[in-house]
């Protein structure tokens, strides 16, 4: 073991983000297992890597037991033998004996090599999982690395690793080519034992729209405007309820921006999807009326806390309900209120 080995660990830390101390601990454990195959599988082995001296030492650990007592030669040593090694050794103590690794067979060295490679893979998976966990519920920008023409799935280079954006998690009607940069929402991260973290990416999740608003609207970033809810039919329509904590700030106007500049950046990302920005109200009747936009409501009669009857003029009925009931469904989802619309 020479300086090149430890230089390689430093390179891993710089390029892969795997801490050198973490890898040393993993390699010490891997080498200990390899040495056990040489000395005895039940033997307690301690491996010590020294980055300063660029070497490593292997010790067999045995517990001191009374003379004349039957003992396990791999893990125990008699008191007299221990005293012969050092007068400081006492009953119940641990005696470490250094082993000469040059006598180990090539088979053990090969096993140690494989364990080190596995340790590096484990460390890489753990690093990726941590990085994805830190970005969970956030939007990241990824590059399309491959397009699966059979099922429409995209393989994305996320900067942390490679992950799949399923066809079902893509906005209906959108297409992407290799090399395209796209925004995706990390909705779930699971630790995978063999192939690394299992990451669920999405462009249809309601929080994808919410995060886009947070990225584009400064007043949302600083907390002046709060997003109270999002309901969405990806690729068709979204409704976003906003509330201003400052009476001098118009929540809806701030999200639209001058000449629609702010909302246009969001719409560009969503393609053909329409977005209704709704003014939130604690008054549920007022909230429902606002949410039914672009339809104009004549009255909202609350039947109970979460059920209401809405009246619109005949020419507004189809607009209020929407194609295949979409507008009404989005409103019900956004407000949490069961609605009945009548002309």
Strand coverage percent? 25-35%
Helix share bin: 25-40%
- Structural class, from secondary structure content? alpha+beta
- State the CATH topology of the largest domain: N Utilization Substance Protein A, Chain:P, domain 4
Strand order of the largest sheet: 7-6-5-8-9
The CATH architecture assignment of the largest domain turns out to be 2-Layer Sandwich
What is the CATH superfamily of the largest domain? NusA, N-terminal domain
Molecular shape: elongated
Which residues form runs of ≥5 with pLDDT under 50?
Answer: none
Number of strands: 15
Radius of gyration: 32 Å
The termini sit apart by 84 Å
Write structural notes for this entry.
The protein is an alpha+beta fold and 343 residues long. It folds into four domains: 130 residues, NusA, N-terminal domain (N Utilization Substance Protein A, Chain:P, domain 4, 2-Layer Sandwich); 66 residues, Nucleic acid-binding proteins (OB fold (Dihydrolipoamide Acetyltransferase, E2P), Beta Barrel), CATH 2.40.50; 76 residues, K homology (KH) domain (GMP Synthetase, Chain A, domain 3), CATH 3.30.300.20; 52 residues, GMP Synthetase, Chain A, domain 3 (2-Layer Sandwich). The protein contains eleven helices and 15 strands. It has a five-stranded antiparallel β-sheet. Strands 1, 2, 3 and 4 form a four-stranded mixed β-sheet that branches. Strands 10-11-12 form a three-stranded mixed β-sheet, sandwiched between helices.
